[in-house]
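User: Show me sequence and structure for the first protein, then do the same for the second.

Assistant: Starting with the first protein.
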Amino acid sequence: MQLQRKLDAFRTDFEADVDRKTSLDKEALRLKSAGFQERALKVGQRAPDFEIPDFEGNQDSLARLRSGGPLALIFFRGLW
């Protein structure tokens, strides 16, 4: 299946789940009205350093990860 067909199917399924879509829309509006949008990092802006446990529970830092070269920092908002 081509990517566009998969994305279209995902969008259709997502929009059909009215309760989930309504809940996420309300949360997005709440965050926006609280000013989070203005404080969020912009594309290309450098993230401040932080430490976080890795998948094995060991502390790691953004600075250490950056030292290995270019780094993409992705925030995933799960639906579980």
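Switching to the second protein now.
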Amino acid sequence: MTSESETNHKLDFIKTTFPYRLFTTKKLRNTSKFLDTLPERHQDLLADYRDHLRMLTVGIDVNQNLFMLMTYDETNLFENHADVYVSSVGEKFIM
């Protein structure tokens, strides 16, 4: 992978993960608003569904934190380093 393509890949990854929380929480809010428009009987039948939506928000937060950790030091994101390429017998592969 060339330096330019690595940089483009890194930027694509950052652009993809940056709006993740905003996009997914907006979808969950829209779903919740839709549930509010349903007749009360239908809402009662979907009581567990609301709980699942709440659990999804926790998962979204965890994922967003993971993305933040992955891109925290974006200068080294996707960079090839010689010390990463070590064989099982301790030989380094320089690329």
